[in-house]
Amino acid sequence: MITRIVKLHLHDDKVDAFITIYNESKAFIAQSKGNRSVKLVRDIHQANLVFTISSWDSEDDLNAYRQSDFFAVVWSKVKPLLQSKTDAWSLEEIH
Length: 95
Description:
four-stranded antiparallel sheet
């Protein structure tokens, strides 16, 4: 199993728009092959700094989702809301 963390630094006035997109998308993400969980968290000091945290059975499952038409459509909506490039990490538990 892998955990995917994506850091998104949004424009201050675009946070609500991002949360709307996330809420509209999370059910599809949760139903994607290999997805175990998905959640959105926010920095306690910077309201425009958010992170998505998702768990996947494998990197192949994550990559299949990232290459889907659904992801392409959602990403085209999210990208204009960003203040800077995203950072992302794919992690595995080592005990």
